[in-house]
Amino acid sequence: MTAHTALPPLQDFMCFATYTANLAFGKAYKPYLGKIGLTYTQWIALVALGEEDNQTVNQLGRKLFLASNTLTPLLKGMEQQGWLVRERSKEDERRVVVNLTGAGRAKLAESQSCIGIFQDCGLSMEETAALQKAVSKLRDNLLAGLEDKREAAEAVENQPRIE
Question: Is 101 a residue whose pLDDT tops 90?
Answer without folding.
Answer: yes
